[in-house]
Structures are given as structure tokens and as C-alpha cells.
Amino acid sequence: MQQANVPPKIVFIGGAGNMAGAVIGGMIAAGYPPEQILATGRDTRKLADFSTRWGVAIATDNLQAVADAEVIVLSVKPQVMGALCQSLRPALAGREPLVITLAAGIPLAAYRRWLGEHLPIVRAMPNTPSLVQAGVTGLYAGPGVTQAQRQQAEQIAGAVGITLWVEEESGIDQVIAVSGSGPAYYFLFMEAMIDAAEAAGMARADAERLTLQTALGAAKLAQSSDVDVARLRRNVMSPGGTTERAIQRFQRDGLDKLVAAAMHDCAERAAEMARELDRD
Ligand SMILES: NC(=O)C1=CN([C@@H]2O[C@H](COP(=O)(O)OP(=O)(O)OC[C@H]3O[C@@H](n4cnc5c(N)ncnc54)[C@H](OP(=O)(O)O)[C@@H]3O)[C@@H](O)[C@H]2O)C=CC1
Ligand SMILES: O=C(O)[C@@H]1CCC=N1
């Protein structure tokens, strides 16, 4: 029985991986007690390093790890999720811990098949900036998830950034295309700017410093501003000036169509992954 004011004991399966690691790091930075977190994995060295960094408990035995967990976060790659869930099933029979899955492209129906119909399951789609508490997490609650369990999911995701609950499961694929995969789009754009600045003669370290601070500044300005991003862009573009010339090039070469097509491909890949599961 959970004591008043003690946050739930959470087990992260695949806890030292990129995504769960970012969520755990962000939660601890936000004050979540590390002793309430258990991270599992297969690589003992990686787990030990992770535990040294964050002070959380670690384990390689998933079945033992979930035995008394109130919340179980599944964060393995989609390709191994089915086998993992089926291996957990015996430990979950007759119990109803909240299961939160971070995986892209696996529908709720598959978890219900693998784990049992009785479990309350939330699909969450976070992103790696959760590590610095600047994350975004999309959330979708399956059947049987209680209001208290929604709040538990919200408490975890809300500790590391902003949250958005979607009413339809397909909304998770839209969240993937915007914020789940989105950090990689910005990193790609930054890489391109750094490479171009270096090619034009700037020292790489200077190019990195200027590019990152510009990205941060633009995002902060947009977040604190009461005008939209199109207006902020126009504020930088003096008529007949330098920015206008650069923006004209982006627009002439179809940046908006390219972005829309890439986001479409991203969401479509999530749907395709779900179809591949059905064929297995
Ligand atoms: N990366 C991202 O930006 C995002 C990822 N996601 C989702 O998060 C999930 C994890 O992705 P990501 O963190 O990038 O992948 P990683 O490969 O970094 O992490 C997965 C972890 O799972 C562990 N693992 C594999 N098999 C088992 C097992 N049987 N038992 C316990 N642990 C196991 C691995 O540990 P070991 O090395 O010890 O085997 C590894 O640390 C995916 O489903 C992905 O769709 C969602 C949103 C964003
Ligand atoms: O690329 C992927 O499949 C995962 C899901 C969202 C971000 N990374």
C-alpha cells in the first residue's frame, strides 16, 4: 500500500537507454526521489554507470523488477517489445500496475494481447529534451485507466516538460511527427548550419556556439512572445536585406513542402510499424 506523499515506485524496463534515461534524468533533476526508481537492462556495465550517475536502483531481472512496481514504464525498441511483454505476463497476472509504454508504432491492442486485457495502459510519446526538463510528452489512455493513474502518468511526464493528452490513439503518431522525432529535425538543421559556417571559414567551435545559442534564443523568444512565429520571422527580415535573401532561397527551394513531406513520412512509418506487427 502506498504511503501518503510517497511518490509511486516506478520500474523502467530499458531504463538506461536513450529515451528512458532522459526521462529518469529529468525526473531526478525535478526532485523525484531516485530510491523510488528502478532501471532494468541487459548490459550490467551500462546499468552500473547509469546508477552511479543518477543514484537509481538497477536490475537485469525484469520479472523480479516488476514484482512490486506500482508503475511500469516500457522503453525497449519496438522490435523487441512483443517478446519482452510476453516474458512479463506471468508476473502481471492478477495485478493491475499502471503500464506506460514509450514505444513508437505499437498500438494499444498489441500490448493487451501480449500482457493481458486487464492492465491499464498509457501510451506516452516523449522526446529526449526531457533530460533537461524541456521535453514534450503526448499521452493516450487506454481502457480502464483511472483518473488517479492518469495523474500518475501526468506527474512523471509533467516533471520533465509539457504534456498533451490525445483523445484518439492516432494522435500519438501526430505527436511523433512533431515532437517525438522533432528534436532530430532541429539537430539536422543545426548540423547543416554549423557545417556551412565552417565551410565559409568560421572555426567549428565558434559555429557550434553561435548556432546553438541562436536556436535557443529563437525558441525562447517565440515562447515568451505574444505574436506568432511568422511575425517574429518577418521582424528579422529587413526589406531588401540579408535575411530576406536567405528566406527567399529556403522558400524557392521548397522548405515548407519538404518539412511537410518529412513529417508525413514520419507519421506514416509509425502506422506502417503497426501494420508490420499485425502481419507477424
Ligand atoms: N530515442 C528517442 O528520441 C525516442 C524513443 N522513443 C521510444 O523509446 C523506446 C526506446 O528507444 P531508445 O531509448 O531510443 O532505445 P535504446 O536502445 O537507447 O534503449 C533501449 C534499452 O532497452 C534495453 N533493453 C533491450 N532489451 C531489453 C530487455 N529484454 N530487458 C531490459 N532492457 C532491455 C537496452 O539495454 P541493453 O543495452 O542493456 O540491452 C537499451 O538500454 C523505443 O520504443 C522508441 O520508440 C520514444 C520517443 C523518443
Ligand atoms: O525514431 C524513432 O522511432 C523514435 C520514436 C520517436 C523518436 N525516436
Just name the CATH architecture of the largest domain.
3-Layer(aba) Sandwich
> Mean of residue pLDDT?
95
**Which range does the strand content fall in?**
5-15%
Low-confidence regions: none
Distance between the termini: 39 Å
How would you characterize the largest beta sheet?
8 strands, mixed
Highest CATH level, the class of the largest domain: Alpha Beta
Q: What overall geometry do the principal axes of the alpha carbons give?
A: globular
SSE class: alpha/beta
What does this entry look like structurally?
Helix 7 (171-180) packs across helix 12 (255-279). This protein is 56% helix and 13% strand. Helix 5 links the parallel strand 5 (98-101) and strand 6. The model has no long low-confidence stretch (mean pLDDT 95). It is built from twelve helices and eight strands. It is of the alpha/beta class. The chain has two domains: 10-168, 3-Layer(aba) Sandwich (Rossmann fold); 182-266, ProC C-terminal domain-like fold (Orthogonal Bundle). The protein is globular, with a radius of gyration of 21 Å. Bound molecules: NADPH dihydro-nicotinamide-adenine-dinucleotide phosphate and (2S)-3,4-dihydro-2H-pyrrole-2-carboxylic acid (A1CAB). Residues 13-14, 16-20, 40-43, 46, 62, 75-78, 80, 84, 102-104, 125-128, 180 line the site of NADPH dihydro-nicotinamide-adenine-dinucleotide phosphate. It is found in: Cytoplasm. Its EC number is 1.5.1.2. Keywords: Amino-acid biosynthesis, Cytoplasm, NADP, Oxidoreductase, Proline biosynthesis. Belongs to the pyrroline-5-carboxylate reductase family. It comes from Biformimicrobium ophioploci.
